[in-house]
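Two records follow; treat each independently.
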Amino acid sequence: MRLNQVTLPSINVEESVLFYKKLGLHLIVDASPRYVRFELPDGDSTLSIHQVEELPKGDGTTIYFEDDNLDELVKQLQQKGIEFTQLPKDQTWLWREAHLLDPDGNKLILFKAGENRKNPPWRIN
């Protein structure tokens, strides 16, 4: 089994398209204003955005995007006008993370974990 597709809700799909293009995703399906789908620059995963009348309440979902050159990626995104709620920071769980929100308030975490993502020192067998 593989996770290959995540879909996020959006009030304004066109605004989300601009945001996710700035992040470096490639638009592959455009049924605006109702639905769009992106492929990620690395791997085989896709991310779609679908229009909703109202965003879900509560904490919602957090999407993680891993990049081996996290600090450089964050600098490039800041130059494109992307704002972060947390700049790259080393976490106690051995990941380096930067936090941001998409135009609809969906939480995104750009991170670098390397081997610690699936094999932290405290991994159970």
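The next record belongs to a different protein.
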Amino acid sequence: MTGRYCYKELLPFTAMVAIECSNVGVNVLFKKATEKGLSYYAFVAYSYLISALFLLLPLPFVFRWSRSLHLNLSLIFRIFLLGVIGVIAQLCGYKGLNYTSPTLASALSNLIPAFTFILAIIFSVFILSRR
């Protein structure tokens, strides 16, 4: 019973706290690095390099991937488009962080689910009105 509680209740909470702490740490690190003269583009490139090395590279060794995974051109294009949008969003966020403090940037990151919900409502109304 205790293992089930840990898996269902404690693990998501711990993951959420760890993500928020790492988000605050990256914001503070970015603010200090840009004050020393590091470029926005270099910081984003370094962050993608570090995440690829420590997060994506070990995945095939941890999980058994299915051999039936087929990548077609449409899926590859969608993944590429998602990556481009992510880089642009990070650059815009770091540019805004240059004008404010890391505390405010970390607090505003908690509003992302609310903005996502509002955009989902707007786009669903837009899509339903076109039918």
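Discussion point: The CA atoms of residues 103 and 121 lie 29 Å apart. How would you locate this feature using only the token line?
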